[in-house]
Amino acid sequence: MTIERPIDPARSRSVLDPYVDRYAARTAGMTASEIRALFAVASRPEVVSLAGGMPNISGLPLDVVGGAISDLVATQGPVAMQYGSGQGVPELREQITEVMALEGIQAHADDVVVTVGSQQAVDLVTRIFCDPGDVVLCEAPSYVGALGVFKSYQCDVVHIEMDGEGLVPAALRNGIRAVKAAGRTIKFLYTIPNFHNPAGVTLSAERRPEILAICREEGVLVLEDNPYGLLGFDREPMRALRADEPEGVIYLGSFSKTFAPGFRVGWALAPASVREKLVLAQESATLCPPQFSQMAVSAYLANHDWQGQIKQFRELYRERRDAMISALSDLMPVTVRWNVPDGGFYVWLTLPPGINAKAMLPRAVTARVAYVPGTAFFADGFGSSSMRLSYCYPTPERIREGVRRLAGVIEAEMELHSTFGTDTAELRLGAGVDSPGTDTL
Amino acid sequence: MTIERPIDPARSRSVLDPYVDRYAARTAGMTASEIRALFAVASRPEVVSLAGGMPNISGLPLDVVGGAISDLVATQGPVAMQYGSGQGVPELREQITEVMALEGIQAHADDVVVTVGSQQAVDLVTRIFCDPGDVVLCEAPSYVGALGVFKSYQCDVVHIEMDGEGLVPAALRNGIRAVKAAGRTIKFLYTIPNFHNPAGVTLSAERRPEILAICREEGVLVLEDNPYGLLGFDREPMRALRADEPEGVIYLGSFSKTFAPGFRVGWALAPASVREKLVLAQESATLCPPQFSQMAVSAYLANHDWQGQIKQFRELYRERRDAMISALSDLMPVTVRWNVPDGGFYVWLTLPPGINAKAMLPRAVTARVAYVPGTAFFADGFGSSSMRLSYCYPTPERIREGVRRLAGVIEAEMELHSTFGTDTAELRLGAGVDSPGTDTL
């Protein structure tokens, strides 16, 4: 005979996760990002995903890439398949200096550290600089992947206002002073000067020296993240912040958007003393970045007109940007606002007052369109009336269809709002209808 | 006219590293490892390196690998070159469960997380579990790369005694109790049960259940690192600790020694709750491990007799082990001791009393032979009378020549010691002769 015992709440909790009391304090800050969750949504063919930031690599010459890589195996296989240097393949680091020269950067390959995508560069820089409680300054909004890193290192993010010309210098100066006045330590300013993810804006040429001067005066290191800089639609690449400030800027670059993300090859260019620490951090993290990936990227750069390929990418993304902007103009309610990016992947869209983008997402997914709610791009809960729309991946026709569906969802939400006169967030979340499963949100 | 000013010491320090006061506390623990420094030595052709742990991949069928990879680009290029899942490619994770089945592990692909080499798995596990000051138990000696990770997360390593049968159960129990009695928190036991790096020993079949029972009773999680398990010379793979303890063991594996390290593909198999945290940590660290590398490894496994290849590797390493052991027997002074590994890459050698392996290294390099001093494998300064010799990479002839040179150096050191009757450490370091440049040590 068995006796039914009352459930011990402690035990019941431990059945869910027996390790719950053992994790590091930093692990509490690791939660599933909204972008991650949306990968699942984006993969359903009936949904038009305006959410993900996957580059459109359909135009890559597979024969060239395949040929370069099989030559690599045949001629340098034993080197490509072996361990390599923690800093990265020297020849690739030379080529990286040539890529950066397009943005006015004069650098030596010795100061380049190859990373597993530029995401890992953000991780390693944060690892060597940030103690728990340190402050990192970020644009408002900022890249969700970087915010996740800062959170996982228990940093406090302080957002700095942007406008149509990028980071606002006066806001930066005030922000720095306020943080210092509170007795807090600022470790760096994390900024995406070109074709910002998610805001779509670019730091103007006039403001660049001003931002650098403020950071120099205030002793704030700049972490310049530039995955999209070569993907401008209407003009040549702008001069990088790093080009005018070699000692005060750590520059991050990536081949994920100008070639392909599947190799996970990014880099950091840093002042020599910082670069030495980054190499040690890389060795501790991975021993060395993948030698095969690096040599594959290097072979592609050596054997292909990579600048011509980037030109094709610019055309492809410009066409999609145009499709999105014209669809928005044609189809959205007049109270919805957005910017017109001149490069990169993203449009930042703001809903009329009272409409909550996060609360609306389940209804949008039901209507077979996906986006990323603005709250994902703030460390502090702001952004609920905004969303990021990406035009990089779908065809122009699908983009228009996605915008049409989204406009319908917004109109319905506005109608609901005008009928009930309340913030739809509480209403929808309370009602709990149309909510997708845990694997999709 | 310019006025010469006296040097400001603060400024002079800042010229060396202007960021010296800005790094995180953890960065103080990041220093160049002895193994890293030795890469530079090993690459000079006139030196016989018995230092590095580079696998000997000269036997890999380049035509098969090249063919599989160019097929991959042609047939699945757009997938292989795109972003993927943070957890890793599903098909590869299935194949990984088949690899682990050779060691008695029954696992589901859902519980596998692909990492950038198993080094990154050590990093991610430590990241999610360890706060500064937490204790990690390690064998004495232990793998230098893992010790570096634990140091970079500001953990305290407590070493547990090994003998010819591996970790000593009584020492483990006493160690755990002593740490607990001191009020410290143990986060896990890090252990390499098979063909230990650097000690060359294997945990006996009899001890395995005993070690697991102690950890279960004491509530200590086990981190089982097993890069060499399939590389035994005389018998089938032993049953993994994880095979008998699915909930209390995180198992780490790697393709670096059974296929090739240049793809940087390793993995962690973890209980579901821990695995979820590892995926989040991986996304924060890299977004996703390299898709191309993973699919290349997967294609190799699918298209090649990988188990036959491992058999060839076992023959190759057995031949080299034999060369090293017979050279040691023939050439070393009788007071030098070593073990005979039955798999893996390493011999652990102990010098007669009074001879310091670290202090002797510059003289050895001058005599054109390199090894890793034992101190690299201890977190606490022990190991000065020992060294790790690896036989994985050089030819049998070169191994014998390297041992001959090393024996000469040891004999000279012993003579010096018997003449001056003092620990040679102080003498050599004080004299500062025969010291290679900073780029080689």
Verbal overview:
2 copies of one chain form a homodimer. By secondary structure, the first copy, chain A, is of the alpha/beta class. Helix content of chain A is 44%, strand content 14%. In chain A, strands 2-9-8-7-6-3-4-5 form an 8-stranded mixed sheet, with helices on both faces. In chain A, helix 6 links the parallel strand 3 and strand 4. In chain A, helix 3 crosses helix 10 and helix 7 runs parallel beside helix 8. Chain A is globular, with a radius of gyration of 23 Å. The N terminus and C terminus of chain A are likely disordered. Chains A and B meet through helix 3, helix 5, helix 6, helix 9 and helix 10 of A and helix 3, helix 5, helix 6, helix 9 and helix 10 of B.
Keyword list:
homodimer, 441 residues, alpha/beta, Aspartate Aminotransferase, domain 1, Aspartate Aminotransferase, domain 2, 2 domains, 8-stranded mixed β-sheet, 4-stranded antiparallel β-sheet, 14 helices, 14% strand, globular, disordered N terminus, disordered C terminus
Short description:
With 441 residues, chain A is an alpha/beta fold.
Walk me through the topology.
2 copies of one chain form a homodimer.
Chain A: H1 9-16, H2 34-42, E1 48-49, H3 62-80, H4 90-101, E2 112-116, H5 117-129, E3 135-140, H6 144-152, E4 156-163, E5 166-167, H7 169-181, E6 186-191, H8 207-218, E7 222-225, E8 249-254, E9 265-269, H9 272-286, H10 291-303, H11 306-331, E10 337-338, E11 346-350, H12 357-366, E12 369-370, E13 372-373, E14 386-390, H13 396-420, H14 424-431
Parallel strand pairs in A: 1-12, 3-4, 3-6, 6-7, 7-8
Antiparallel strand pairs in A: 2-9, 4-5, 8-9, 10-11, 11-14, 13-14
